[in-house]
Specification:
The chain has 495 residues and is an alpha/beta fold. It is built from 16 helices and 17 strands.
Length: 495
């Protein structure tokens, strides 16, 4: 009888290790480190040299002294018409009704709504412009309250982008890519800078739309998503109706001490799994349960405007008490900023005037003008504007030429226009009462000091003390960043 050769004990041990067991055991060290990072934020903060290694409390940034502590981004979905609001072009009146020069449109992409339109008559601005404040910035009569704070604003009149359709263009502005899947700007900042708010999320998103529902813009969750970053860095959306955040209230019969005991037990179970598998999503789950518990106390106080003086409420406008309105969200943004929320993203849809330019643009301005200006004034009078960056702008501009038939006045419109448009910034680190860049005489192309979307993103990160080339995350074998492989800080607009 042939003798069976015995395996060495070490070989037997190796043969008995399953793939799942191997990765689970190997991950224990990572899991313990991640949990330690979460439970002891002071000792776990990294340094600027460990960029790319995810941490529950940021990477120990900033890279250098920041000018801004927080950002409020008033994103205007649908694209405000720059030539009707901020970029005054007398040439448009001279050319009104005449075909725009072919030299401008040749080889350019437009949306399917005017892509095959052969008649492209120039139309003059539908509003009146005046120079405002000591800076002499041109602002439309449609924006009277914004006009009053012109000396606080830094206008960038030479923005340009790449996409001619809304969702890719918005995604590009917010994530640095036209394709969904990348982390949004707020996620990058909270990933790099860590926690600042004690009992609220560091990244909050709110949405609103025009009351007439004239614009079919959709708010996709990836506009405030964390992409391939751990999900604890994604934005928390505050709803516009009912409870701002669902499931914060305890069910009937559940006391707060009882809730605390349940969460402690769940945490203990999750910690076991975290040590066993090292999955960062388990760390996220622990952190989010704790945040929800804190928000049970902080959110009701946050949304209670009874402590706001009447003159402040009046400044934001009559819509301020309507939950889900742009005015309500702007006041919420200030209250969130007071509580050290790092990135507040207010998105408002209604600017897509393809066939209703002559009546809907003015209504849209009436809904958003006063709240936007009030936010800047409110922050300034509280001494917060000096370290809060406010941004106002859309994903692209509107064409200087008409979409539609020039004789059909009621259905006048302007198509999407990525080749130049205007946004403004105010507050921490940007020059007040300053206009940067310029478009050509038709408001068609950015021709002076052109600012690409990646340049804008690099500048925002710079104001927060981040070198946009160094804040990276390794995913699928490549180190990604918000600005991809592009972007330059626009130093001329900085104080």
């Amino acid at each position: 009888m042939k003798e069976t050769k015995r395996m060495h004990p070490f070989e037997e041990y190796q043969a008995g290790i399953t793939r799942r067991n191997f990765f689970g055991k190997m991950a224990q060290g990572i899991g313990v480190a991640a949990l330690s990072s979460m439970l002891n934020p002071v000792s776990s903060l990294g340094s600027a040299t460990n960029v790319g290694a995810p941490s529950g409390n940021g990477l120990g940034l900033p890279h250098f002294a920041p000018k801004a502590k927080r950002v409020i981004y008033l994103f205007q979905n649908g694209a405000p018409s720059h030539v009707d609001l901020f970029d005054y072009k007398p040439t448009l009146r001279k050319w009104h009704g005449k075909q725009i020069p072919d030299s401008l449109t040749e080889g350019k992409r437009f949306s399917t709504m005017t892509g095959k339109q052969t008649a492209r008559p120039v139309i003059a601005e539908i509003s009146n412009f005046e120079q405002r404040g000591q800076s002499g910035a041109w602002v439309s009569d449609f924006m009277p309250e914004t006009a009053k704070i012109a000396d606080e604003l830094c206008f960038i009149k030479s923005m340009y982008t790449e996409s001619v359709n809304h969702a890719p263009a918005i995604t590009f502005f917010l994530t640095g890519s036209e394709q969904p899947g990348r982390p949004s700007m707020g996620s990058w900042l909270t990933y790099g800078l860590g926690n600042s708010a004690q009992d609220l999320p560091d990244f909050v998103a709110m949405t609103s739309r025009d009351k007439e529902a004239s614009c079919g813009q959709i708010f996709y969750d990836y506009y405030w998503g964390s992409g391939f970053l751990p999900t604890k860095f994604q934005g928390v959306k505050f709803r516009g109706g009912g409870d701002p955040v669902l499931y914060l209230k305890n069910p009937e019969g559940m006391s707060r001490p009882m809730r605390r005991k349940i969460l402690d037990d769940m945490r203990a179970l999750n910690e076991i799994n975290l040590q066993e598998y090292g999955d960062p999503e388990i760390s996220t789950r622990i952190a989010q349960y704790e945040m929800s518990y804190k928000m049970q106390m902080s959110v009701p106080d946050l949304t209670d405007f009874s402590d706001e003086p009447q003159h402040i409420l009046d400044m934001y406008g009559s819509d301020v008490h309507r939950k889900g309105s742009f005015a309500f969200n702007c006041l919420m943004a200030r209250r969130l900023a007071e509580r050290d929320v790092r990135f507040i993203q207010c998105m408002h849809a209604g600017w897509d005037q393809h066939k209703n330019l002559n009546y809907q643009l003015k209504i849209q301005c009436q809904d958003t003008d006063a709240p936007s200006a009030a936010l800047v004034k409110d922050l300034k009078q509280r001494g917060m504007l000096e370290d809060t960056l406010v941004i106002w702008g859309g994903e692209f501009g509107r064409t200087p030429f008409l979409q539609g038939n020039i004789e059909d006045t009621r259905n006048w419109g302007r198509d999407h226009h990525p080749y130049t448009f205007t946004l403004w910034m105010a507050g921490a680190g940007v020059k007040p009462g300053f206009s940067y860049g310029a478009s050509d005489e038709f408001g068609f192309n950015a021709v002076e000091n052109r600012v690409h979307v990646h340049d804008f993103q690099a500048t925002v990160m710079h104001l927060l003390g981040i070198d946009h080339e160094k804040l990276t995350f390794k995913f699928q074998g490549r180190r990604f960043r918000l600005t991809d492989v592009h972007g330059h800080v626009v130093k001329d607009i900085l104080t």
